[in-house]
Design a protein that fits this description.
Layout lengths: L30 H7 L11 E4 L6 E3 L9 E3 L2 E2 L23 H5 E4 L3 H10 L8 E3 L10 H4 L1 H12 L3 E5 L8 H8 L4 E6 L5 H7 L6 H13 L4 E8 L8 H10 L4 E6 L6 H12 L4 H10 L19 H16 L17 H8 L1
Parallel strand pairs: 1-5, 3-6, 6-7, 7-8, 8-9, 9-10
Antiparallel strand pairs: 2-3, 4-5
């Protein structure tokens, strides 16, 4: 059912599940036939390929009441971080790809992202409000080091003084602290660093191309030291795998300067459930049954939940226990003690400002 059972070097997914929108299916060879033919074959490697995304708009509109923002920006579609649990994986199927290995090895790149954003802010119809960067895939995934699409967009945010909230699990954001510091000086920046686990061994299996936990904590500290409001996102919480780390993650984040914290429970929509099941059975065979049962325990007997109000928090006694544990340690470490307010009062259109001077 799942094709090849050994890990693909540097990848989270172990195979390409069928695209639910495509009729054509390509079946892999059975494992035993591959082994007989290539008995000494090295672990497979898959090269990342990049494609130009010629989208004519850059802002995505959110209509979910579970999320506290209306607009988000994603300069990339697909994510080389390869997080096996990523809720964004099924979105790759709209592009004709698979949500498995394709999602982390076939990346769409919006080369005009900064120009499109500039056009949005320059338009008289734009009313300044906080934009989340990114809402779907990580804006600091590895290729950003060379393309600098996120940095160029931040320069646009700074040009117009439009507030931005960023979420990432990559220490590459340290490169842009100069811009974030300036934005923060006018209450226009907030950064959330995702910390799923403090165990490097789990990171390498579950989030193979992300920054180490130590580097993420270092990033929190550096942002805080530079006056950039910073929080931690303990997400996703996978019952039976990383939920016991909630206290230690919150303590470490607070010790490094985080003042806010959030969390979400794992959900496994569409082909994501097949990817996760294959992964947990491959990497943690002795724990697999327990983890899957506990996921069902917070999802009403299922592996996913799409209903608003439940999909982020889960339901049932175990979900309530996780929520209580999270809140207890937030209080213990003085997290979320004051609301964060980003400001739109400094927004300016440079063209309007220039005209007023004359």
């Amino acid at each position: 059912m799942f094709g090849r059972q050994e890990a693909v070097v540097g990848r989270g997914a172990g195979f390409n599940p069928h695209n639910r929108f495509e009729e054509l299916r390509v079946e892999a060879f059975p494992d035993d036939s591959v082994a007989d033919t290539l008995p000494d074959a090295p672990p497979p490697r898959i090269e990342t390929k990049f494609y130009v995304d010629s989208s004519k708009s850059i802002l995505a509109v959110n209509d979910s009441p579970d999320l506290g923002f209306r607009y988000s920006i994603n300069p990339y579609r697909g994510c080389e971080h390869g997080c096996v649990y990523c809720y964004a994986r099924p979105s790759h199927e709209y592009l004709g790809f698979s949500s498995g290995l394709d999602f982390e090895s076939k990346i769409m790149v919006k080369l005009d992202a900064a120009k499109l954003l500039d056009d949005e802010f320059a338009g008289r119809s734009w009313k300044p409000e906080t934009i989340v960067f990114s809402g779907n895939t990580d804006c600091y995934q590895p290729v950003e080091r060379n393309l600098e699409l996120t940095r160029k967009c931040l320069q646009v945010f700074l040009k117009y003084r439009n507030p931005v909230s960023m979420i990432t699990k990559n220490a590459l954001i340290q490169r842009d602290i100069d811009l974030l510091r300036e934005l923060a000086s006018v209450q226009c920046a907030f950064v959330i660093i995702s910390v799923t686990t403090l165990r490097q061994s789990l990171v390498r299996k579950m989030e193979p191309r992300t920054s180490s936990p130590a580097r993420r904590l270092e990033t929190i500290e550096l942002l805080a030291r530079n006056g950039v409001p910073v929080g931690v996102n303990v997400a996703p919480i996978i019952p039976g795998l990383n939920d016991m780390e909630i206290p230690s993650i919150l303590r470490a984040a607070a010790d490094h300067g985080a003042r806010w914290a959030g969390h979400t429970l794992l959900r496994l929509p569409y082909a994501l459930k097949d990817l996760f099941i294959e992964w947990i059975k491959r990497e943690y065979p002795e724990q697999a049954a327990k983890v899957l049962n506990r996921i069902r325990g917070v999802r009403g007997g299922k592996l996913s939940e799409s209903e608003f109000g439940k999909r982020m928090t889960g339901e049932g006694e175990l979900a309530r226990s996780i929520q209580q544990l999270f809140q207890l340690h937030c209080r213990k470490h003085s997290l979320n003690t004051s609301p964060l307010k980003l400001s739109t009062e400094h927004f300016v259109r440079p063209s309007t400002l220039q005209q007023s001077l004359f």
